[in-house]
Amino acid sequence: MALAMIAALMVINLLVVGMIVSQARDHQLTVRRVETVASFYAAEAGINMSMREMFENADEDGDGWVGAISEDSDPDNDPTIGNAQFFVSTSESSPQGPQTTITSEGRSGQARRTMVSSVN
Description:
The chain is of the alpha+beta class. It has a four-stranded antiparallel β-sheet. It has one domain (2-119). The protein has one helix at residues 2-56; strands spanning 80-81, 84-93, 99-108, 111-119.
């Protein structure tokens, strides 16, 4: 009788540990998904901020470049949205007329998202 009770308790303990491990794994997946969405929105915000600087012809973030946001290779002063940060670089080309390519990278935790936009 005691042996059966010990075996039953061991089975219950294994089930509880399995559920906890499973929940921890689900939690990590949820955190990664939230980081991915945050980095996407940060990259999008970088594109929007860059376009605003270009349309107003003003260096609003004070990095010395119109259209580039925090283009100084110092991640400590990158703009922050919630837990996400972003920076934007620009390059100009003119094979078919004046065109500026905006590249924005958003990051949150381990997630990274890059958006590229072209402006004529």
